[in-house]
Write a structure and sequence with these properties.
cytoplasm, Protein-L-isoaspartate O-methyltransferase, four-stranded parallel beta sheet, 6 helices, transferase, Rossmann fold, 18% strand, SAM-dependent_MTases_sf, alpha/beta
Length: 176
């Protein structure tokens, strides 16, 4: 039986971004270094520009215990969830080098964008993502549902997947 054709990620990346646009995974209110607080409803052009840039977007601080506001972000070093910069995401995925049929475990679901990109590339049934924060996991599930992707989603600290067989692991979560 012939092996499935492997399409290099470089060739796939543009269609993956089309299949899972980053803006579908960034919350209405977030924070960037360049713009500070961005709010989709208050200033759509700034929010769109921030989402289109190759920058990380902070989506949660203090593990959700502190509201995401411009002054609170400056007061806390604990930026506990973000939507990573696109170049970093695609660099990680290139290093991961998944092949058709590979099962991929993602540790640190965050906004769900990377899980969506992997799902678009491999098929959602090949992707399992785990997030330690229940609130972030619920938001990621909403984003993924809206985008039409249904990878396996788990809430936990990573130890709960020791039984899982996977061919590659992408980790962007923080260590406790």
């Amino acid at each position: 039986m012939a092996e499935p054709e492997h399409k290099p990620l470089e060739e796939f990346a543009p269609s993956a971004e089309w299949a899972a646009p980053r803006e579908w995974f960034v919350p209405d209110v977030a924070w960037t270094v360049e713009d500070g607080l961005i709010d989709r409803h208050a200033d759509l052009p700034t929010w769109n520009a921030a989402v289109a840039r190759d920058d990380a977007i902070v989506t949660q601080i203090d593990d959700g215990a502190t509201q995401l506001t411009a002054s609170n972000v400056r007061r806390t070093p604990n930026r506990s969830s973000s939507c990573s910069a696109p170049s970093l995401v695609f660099d990680f995925l290139r290093l991961l080098e998944p092949y058709p049929g590979d099962r991929v475990l993602e540790v640190g679901t965050g906004t769900g964008w990377t899980a969506a990109l992997l799902s678009a590339y491999l098929g959602a049934q090949q992707v399992t993502s785990i997030e330690v924060d229940e609130q972030i996991a619920a938001q990621a599930e909403e984003h993924l549902d809206r985008a039409g992707f249904a990878p396996g989603l788990l809430v936990g600290d990573g130890r709960c997947v020791k039984w899982m067989r996977c061919d590659a692991c992408n980790g962007t979560g923080k260590q406790p």
